[in-house]
Amino acid sequence: GRDRAERSRDQGTLAVMDGTLISTIRTGAVTGVCAKYMAPSRSKTVGLFGAGPQCKTQLMALKASLPQLEKAYVYDLSRERAEKFAAEMSQKLNMDVQAASDRLEGATILVPATPAPEPIIHGAEIKKGVYVAHLGNNEVDEELILRADKVVIDDWQTDKHRMGDTMAYMFRDGKIDDSRIDASVSDLVAGRKSGRDNDDQLTYTCNVGLGLYDVAIAARVYQYAKENGIGQKLKLWDEPIMV
After folding, report:
1. Read out DSSP for 53-94?
2. Would you say the pTM of this structure is higher than 0.90?
3. d(CA 209, CA 23)
4. Would you state the pLDDT for residue 235?
5. How far is CA 111 from the centre of its chain?
């Protein structure tokens, strides 16, 4: 009766919010966390592919995790977009961000965040001592994954069946198996496994993204909104708003 209704109300919807910004933030945040374990200790320069919103949160998270970063290069098919990105992020992060006209020489952290259907990072061109933070799809080639000294992924059991990422296709075609994965992100954070062992290794992460991350950040947004009186209260139980 009443007790059951009260329990149902307590377990009901807490908030309805857009997930676009949340998803962009959490994707950048995971790269920032991984960089603590996977980036070379001497890293001072980042190379970004793509001047969209995603690379903004990637750079913000990297700078937060690695305060020693001094410079970032951003490459985009649109030079104008890259220059606008560079001006905005230089001011926001108080660091030297420049639009790049070609490949990103000297960067020890590379982050591709584009809709490119073909690889834009080729393993044969990447030196040891670099960290490649991949967000999924086909922006890196198979050779990079085969050459990497350490491979970390957010959830391999999910991603290997996803079909749409380089690693998933490699698994399907029998070019890699479960042994290619050295650790998950949670393994690194919990200290169960190590990330980079020395600055001469080529390290690689593939963070396709988990809904769990969105829920965790949404919970923080919800709590912040409650504490600061932000948002609009809706009655969805006692007096529901009907269409």
Report:
1. HHHHHHHHHHHHH-TT--EEEEE-S-HHHHHHHHHHHHHHHT
2. no
3. 9
4. 74
5. 9
